[in-house]
Amino acid sequence: VTGRERLLIIGGDAGGMSAAAQARRRAPADRLEIVAFEKGDYTSYGACGLPYYVAGEMDDPEELVSRTPDEHRSQGIDVRMRHEVIAVDLDARVLRVRDSDAGADRSEPFDQLVFANGAEPIRPRLPGVDAQGVHGIQTIGDGIALREHVVKEHVGDRAVVVGGGYIGLEMAEAMHERGMLVTVIDAGPQPMSTLDEDMGALVAAAIRKIGLELQTETRVQAFETDEDGHVRAVVTEHGTIPADIVVLGTGVRPNVRLARDAGVKIGPSGGVKTDPRMATSVPGVWAAGDCVETFHRISRRPVAIALGTYANKQGRVVGENATGGYATFGGVIGTAITKVCAYEIGRTGLNEEEARDAGFEFVTATIESTTRAHYFDGSPEITVKIVAEKRSGRLLGAQIVGREGAAKRIDVMAAAIWNEMTADEFVQLDLGYAPPFSPVWDPTLIAARKAAAMR
Ligand SMILES: Cc1cc2nc3c(=O)[nH]c(=O)nc-3n(C[C@H](O)[C@H](O)[C@H](O)COP(=O)(O)OP(=O)(O)OC[C@H]3O[C@@H](n4cnc5c(N)ncnc54)[C@H](O)[C@@H]3O)c2cc1C
To answer: CA-CA distance, 364 to 412, in Å (whole number)?
Structure first.
């Protein structure tokens, strides 16, 4: 018996390993034992790179891994791979863990526990969804399976991506770059439903310009298979689309079954309920990452938004608090960026629908400009849209669609929205200018000026 405290972590990716690393920095191994259980084959892998692995940006999937199990072990974190936590007993403070290599279950006692078991993909329950060739994309294993399929068997064939969110579009780009004919299907009026329809329309036009097919307001009804059980077509309400590969980009939801079954409170948005220190409803039990519900600073509502940036920050907060420190997670404003081929997309804060839903009265201002001075050859275009509160002019949200240099401009808008700046105040900001980087009035400033004039 060592008398050490035991911190157990469920899930070995962004949220879990950030918590482990921060806890280890603060507490020596003779005081705190840290064990992370990961049911899969990789730790700290960041699924964010998967589209670029499928596209062929790098050849070794290990390159996606920022820290291997051995690297974690060398830091004094005991990582148990292919160990799935199958039950949590919060009264006895014991986990039931299945070791898939040994084919045996074991009990693991804990003093403190972290839920960092991520999100689960939403798989539409449609006929044929389990056919060969219908790929989800969440783990490195999924990425490897899809890439093998794309590279070895089907270059030049037809791919259908179901769901036009950012993951769907990144996967569409990857398969387009592999030479496949790609169709994106979305049930909504435009792809990228986190943008307003007018900005989504710009994304739709960009996708079509690239040479991808896009079918909006189209629901998938079934997947047709051949006699070998391989997908051959996607059946929609508007017709049948031939497909050799299907990728599901149909979203995720917080993975809360274990936590809920154990008696941990789940919040209204479907994630594990946490306080600002990432403590759950049960003392000594913490949660971080895609499995949690967090607080939206503008709508002032609970939200579950699955982003790696949040998982890393929340994990760090958990590691600090679980070792007697004090840290809080300040909530989110939904900042996200992505790209499809040469087109870049960014969004932050509330879009029109979200602002309305949160009870704000608002104005919107949309401007078109370029990301460099006009005299640069092929000066890339950019459209910026701002949502600002009526009368006060407070910035509530921003969306950007454009080419090179467009998307990362959302960060300056995010900083302003985070700090509750008004459009008037934003216009005064001292932003950098030189012709290769922006016109003399940065596009974000032009948009803010227009919003300020409208309020
Ligand atoms: C294709 C793709 C692209 C993305 N791109 C971006 C991006 O560009 N920017 C961004 O911010 N975010 C992006 N994300 C989201 C980001 O990857 C996630 O938000 C982040 O990985 C969440 O980290 P997490 O640790 O909470 O959960 P996860 O990364 O899902 O990790 C949870 C881990 O828990 C393990 N686990 C689950 N249940 C158990 C159990 N019972 N026992 C043991 N282990 C278990 C899982 O195997 C998994 O490894 C992307 C996601 C995908 C899929």
So the answer is: 18
Query: How much is the pLDDT for 255?
Result: 98
Instruction: Give the binding-site residues of ligand 1, using a 6 Å CB cut-off.
Output: 10-16, 37-40, 47-48, 50-51, 84-85, 116-119, 137-138, 167, 255, 258, 289-290, 306-309, 311
What does the alpha-carbon distance between residue 453 and residue 367 come to, in Å, rounded to a whole number? 13
Q: Is the pLDDT of residue 155 over 60?
A: no
Stated length of the chain: 455
Residue of 43, 98, 117, 253 to test ligand 1 pocket, by largest number of atoms within 8 Å of CB: 117
CB-based contact 139:47 (threshold 8 Å): yes
Strand spans (E) along 317-447 = 336-340, 343-349, 362-370, 381-389, 395-402
Residue recorded with tokens 């509750």: 420
**Angle, alpha carbons 222-256-7 (nearest 5°):** 140
106-129: average pLDDT: 97
Q: Cα Rg for the chain, rounded, in angstroms?
A: 23
Q: Which of 6, 41, 46, 48 is catalytic?
A: 48
Q: Is the pTM of this model over 0.85?
A: yes
pLDDT in the model for residue 1: 46
Ligand 1 centroid–CA 119 distance in Å is: 7
341 is an active site residue: no
- Token representation of residue 51: 């589209």
Ligand 1: which of 8, 38, 139, 173 to mutate, judged by most atoms within 8 Å of the beta carbon?
Answer: 38
Cβ atoms within 10 Å, residue 93 = 18
Residues 200/189, Cβ–Cβ less than 8 Å:
yes
Measure 169 CA to ligand 1 centroid, in angstroms: 18
**Is 441's pLDDT higher than 90?**
yes
